């Protein structure tokens, strides 16, 4: 089963959640975010309007996955006459409130949070998501308990809260994947591709041995496909060429090693398949905007970034 293969290899991180609270007749306009945003309806119903004007009706216990870079809005009631615009990331209490109208008279309450989900630490599950996904999870009442658990952990953090929040979000993702598997046309771009054992073998090899001398020829041989057929099928499935994904995996693994290990930069370069430190440094800076040394310095600071940005 795909889920049985997928879930043990997922790395989940959840940033601070917010509660979006809207009175009838109000719109809450939200800016594009560099990360993927989850929106889960705790109370009431309304419309999530996407960046191109598309309208998705969300009822209690529906979950929407909003791609990175997608400005959108939440609208409550049949006639929207008032608007509150959010220009940047909110700040405040551990679980901050974004109110459009009056909090005491909120008709629609949506839990919102940034989530990073990686397969094998290196492939972002939502990296190539281009459209908003909306899924009805009302069939699983435990999903509501999961989101309330996340909000509780973030409102009253204690030892192990980060791990607990990630574990709770993993439960939610199980329900999401199960539902997507049942709904034709509703899937993540590369999730279905992992059901093909030929492509799954290639991905596993990339993730387990990023420093190997991978070529399109060696990977197509592993997939037992011709070079041209493999390259075409891979690019359609994952939205990028095989060697582009190899490079991305190497950079993600390098960032992880720079952040979490005491290996020298030369050793990190060797681990991810670069014979030259200078070549590695140029490639790393082009990929994430800073040199390996600068990235490690920032990562060691108290406000270190939690994840390398997905490539454009």
Kindly list the characteristics that best describe this protein:
312 residues, alpha+beta, Jelly Rolls, Arc Repressor Mutant, subunit A, 5-stranded mixed beta sheet, 10 helices, 38% helix, globular
Structure, described:
The chain is built from ten helices and twelve strands. 38% of the residues lie in helices and 22% in strands. The two termini are 32 Å apart. It has 312 residues and is of the alpha+beta class. Strands 1, 3, 6, 9, 10, 11 and 12 form a seven-stranded mixed sheet that branches. The model is unreliable at 302-312 (pLDDT under 50). The chain has two domains: 2-182, Jelly Rolls (Sandwich), CATH 2.60.120.280; 196-299, Homeodomain-like (Arc Repressor Mutant, subunit A, Orthogonal Bundle). β4 and β5 (55-58) form a beta hairpin. The protein has helices at residues 2-6, 142-155, 161-182, 197-208, 216-222, 227-238, 242-260, 265-271, 277-288, 292-299, and strands spanning 10-22, 26-30, 36-43, 46-49, 55-58, 62-66, 72-75, 82-85, 96-100, 108-119, 123-124, 133-136.
CATH class of the largest domain: Mainly Beta
Average pLDDT confidence is 84
Question: Which class do the helix and strand fractions yield?
Answer: alpha+beta
Helix segment count? 10
The rough form would be described as globular
- Percent of residues in helices: 25-40%
What is the terminal-to-terminal distance?
32 Å
Which fold name fills CATH's third level, the topology of the largest domain? Jelly Rolls
Largest sheet: 7 strands, mixed
Radius of gyration: 21 Å
Beta-sheet strand percentage? 15-25%
CATH architectural label of the largest domain: Sandwich
Number of strands: 12
* Parts with pLDDT < 50 across at least 5 consecutive residues: 302-312
């Amino acid at each position: 089963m795909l889920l049985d293969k997928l879930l043990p290899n997922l790395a989940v991180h959840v940033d601070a959640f917010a509660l979006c609270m809207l009175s009838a007749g109000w719109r809450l306009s939200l800016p594009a975010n560099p990360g993927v945003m989850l929106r889960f309806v705790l109370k009431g119903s309304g419309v999530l309007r996407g960046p191109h004007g598309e309208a998705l009706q969300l009822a209690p216990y529906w979950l929407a996955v909003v791609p990175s870079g997608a400005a959108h809005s939440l609208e409550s009631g049949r006639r929207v006459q008032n608007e509150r615009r959010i220009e940047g990331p909110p700040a405040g209490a551990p679980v901050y409130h974004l109110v459009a109208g009056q909090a005491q008279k909120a008709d629609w309450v949506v839990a919102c949070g940034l989530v990073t989900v990686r397969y094998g630490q290196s492939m972002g599950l939502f990296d190539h998501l281009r459209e908003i996904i909306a899924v009805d999870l009302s069939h699983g009442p435990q999903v509501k308990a999961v989101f309330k658990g996340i909000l509780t952990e973030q409102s009253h953090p204690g030892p192990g809260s980060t791990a607990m929040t990630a574990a709770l979000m993993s439960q939610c993702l199980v329900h999401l994947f199960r539902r997507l598997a049942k709904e034709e046309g509703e899937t993540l771009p590369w999730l279905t591709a992992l059901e093909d054992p030929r492509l799954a073998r290639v991905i596993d090899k990339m993730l387990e041995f990023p420093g190997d001398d991978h070529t399109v020829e060696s990977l197509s041989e592993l997939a037992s496909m011709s070079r041209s057929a493999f390259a075409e099928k891979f690019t359609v499935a994952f939205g990028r060429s095989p060697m582009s994904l190899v490079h991305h995996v190497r950079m993600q693994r390098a960032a992880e090693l720079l952040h979490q290990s005491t290996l020298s930069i030369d050793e990190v370069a060797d681990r991810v398949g670069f014979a030259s430190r200078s070549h590695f440094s140029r490639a790393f800076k082009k990929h994430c905007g800073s040199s390996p040394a600068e990235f490690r310095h920032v990562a060691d600071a108290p406000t270190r970034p939690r994840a390398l940005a997905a490539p454009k």
